[in-house]
Specification:
Layout lengths: L2 H12 L9 H7 L4 H13 L4 E4 L2 E4 L3 H37 L10 E3 L5 E3 L14 H12 L8
Antiparallel strand pairs: 1-2, 3-4
Helix pairs in contact: 1-3
């Protein structure tokens, strides 16, 4: 019997109902899994239609529809939070893109300048034009501070 089937049989036999929930750490030890792999197996079983529920106390085989509904509600909340994080990241990218296009921020460019004595110095060590119309490396570096300060709620 593979671990998915064994996990399903174990939960149904010994942990049916919310009051008999088993902590994930106990399942990890019993089935020789780390937390990530346990979650993957639980997820696979759920995708296959097995009514495995969970809450703060652990995992359990559903005893009734209310337990399934509670887990579905909790999972829906997680999906919403992940979706909101994704939307925020996309929004931040477009804010940066438009700031660059409008010239509000310099386009981040790595510049190396050849010195007469044959040595090379990094752009942060040498003053000069960085492709943004002039300025020193200090001016160039300060563009990154503006870049990271774009989101008002991130602080200064």
């Amino acid at each position: 019997m593979d671990k998915n089937a064994a996990l399903c049989v174990y939960l149904k036999k010994y942990h049916t109902g919310k009051e008999k929930a088993v902590p994930s750490t106990e399942l990890e030890q019993l089935f020789s899994l780390n937390g990530r792999n346990l979650r993957r197996k639980i997820n696979r079983l759920r995708q296959d239609g097995v009514p495995i529920c969970s809450d703060r106390s652990g995992y359990y085989f559903a005893a009734n529809q209310e337990e399934v509904n509670a887990t579905v509600f909790r999972l829906t909340g997680l999906v919403t939070k992940i979706s909101n994080a994704r939307t925020g990241l996309l929004y931040s990218f477009f804010r940066l893109l438009f700031s660059w296009l409008l010239g509000e921020l310099p386009i981040p460019v790595e510049v190396t300048i050849q010195i007469d004595d044959g040595g090379e110095r990094d752009a942060e060590q040498v003053s000069g034009d960085h492709g943004d119309g002039g300025g020193t490396s200090a001016d160039f570096d300060s563009g990154y501070e503006s870049l990271y300060g774009l989101l008002d709620h991130c602080g200064e």
